[in-house]
């Protein structure tokens, strides 16, 4: 058995959720509130010769993790994660979207957090294992999916500050409806002036827990101002738009051009973002990855040059941005009756993911 192909031992739950209870959850899943019956675990250890490797791959019942209180993740936050979805198609088969891209991003995050590389095949098999065991949990209604959360944590009990030699990779799953709840509606955004999300040389491009912990104070400010998400600006106070707390941002201009902030090392490289760039270019649209400032946003909306602004990410897919609050100033959303490009890209992307429209780039992978 090579390191890239592991046999997953099977320890199915002795006490799975009763069908009626699962049906009640699936009737109103919300987002991130309920978890399926199983989890997948793969452990990384370093042997006496200093050689590291993945092993002890298993499917087991979902439940609390037993861990030494000195485990490195609890002290130094050596942790990374991914977020993706499994979709039930009309024929009952279950698919996921661009999992190789998530595997690659997990490994880029791992490199930044000094965690071990996980072979792509182990990543893909972990998804097949979990979704195979918990297939009944994959919702079938429009707009719903099974959210998959792969993550990697440093479990070694050791208080020195160095990369842990014991690491655990896991996947959990949660049935999901619309991230913002209810019907699709524009989200209101709060401009964070007191906090930055990332700085040059930092971890902004990695999907690590610490980035999200650091965003919470800004998120609280947003909520205090009746906004749903935070917009982070660049670290140099040049008013360059970076991204939202959990989503990338796009602007649609009157001439059809799409603009999104360039990847600068401080922005998470969204898989939805890169898919939108591709789909827009397929349509012959000009897509620019460049600096775009708050001033350009304000002036563009004022002059009518910017006709649509939207946020995108796995959880919320593509969601129009409503008004933007910057202290006492409000930059209104472009004409709410617009939104054609936003909605048609959303429809195409969701259509590909749910198997209703052609998948021209072979982005979908069947899991079950
Ligand atoms: C900070 C941040 N930016 C962007 C995204 C969008 O990434 P993706 O499209 O891969 O979900 C996410 C979500 O994962 C995120 O947490």
From TrEMBL:
SUPFAM superfamilies per the UniProt record, alphabetical: D-aminoacid aminotransferase-like PLP-dependent enzymes
GO MF: L-isoleucine-2-oxoglutarate transaminase activity; L-leucine-2-oxoglutarate transaminase activity; L-valine-2-oxoglutarate transaminase activity
Keywords, sorted A to Z: Amino-acid biosynthesis, Aminotransferase, Branched-chain amino acid biosynthesis, Pyridoxal phosphate, Transferase
GO biological process, one term: isoleucine biosynthetic process
Pfam families assigned: Aminotran_4 (PF01063)
CDD domains (UniProt xref): BCAT_beta_family
Entry similarity comment: Belongs to the class-IV pyridoxal-phosphate-dependent aminotransferase family.
Residues with PTM N6-(pyridoxal phosphate)lysine: 207
Enzyme Commission designation: 2.6.1.42
Organism: Arthrobacter subterraneus
InterPro entries: Aminotrans_IV, Aminotrans_IV_CS, Aminotransferase-like, B_amino_transII, BCAT-like_C, BCAT-like_N, BCAT_family
Cofactor(s) of this protein: pyridoxal 5'-phosphate
Pathway stated in the Swiss-Prot or TrEMBL entry: Amino-acid biosynthesis; L-valine biosynthesis; L-valine from pyruvate: step 4/4; Amino-acid biosynthesis; L-isoleucine biosynthesis; L-isoleucine from 2-oxobutanoate: step 4/4; Amino-acid biosynthesis; L-leucine biosynthesis; L-leucine from 3-methyl-2-oxobutanoate: step 4/4
Gene3D superfamilies: 3.30.470.10, D-amino Acid Aminotransferase, subunit A, domain 2 (3.20.10.10)
Catalytically driven reaction(s): L-isoleucine + 2-oxoglutarate = (S)-3-methyl-2-oxopentanoate + L-glutamate; L-valine + 2-oxoglutarate = 3-methyl-2-oxobutanoate + L-glutamate; L-leucine + 2-oxoglutarate = 4-methyl-2-oxopentanoate + L-glutamate
Top-level taxon of the source organism: Bacteria
Record protein name field: Branched-chain-amino-acid aminotransferase
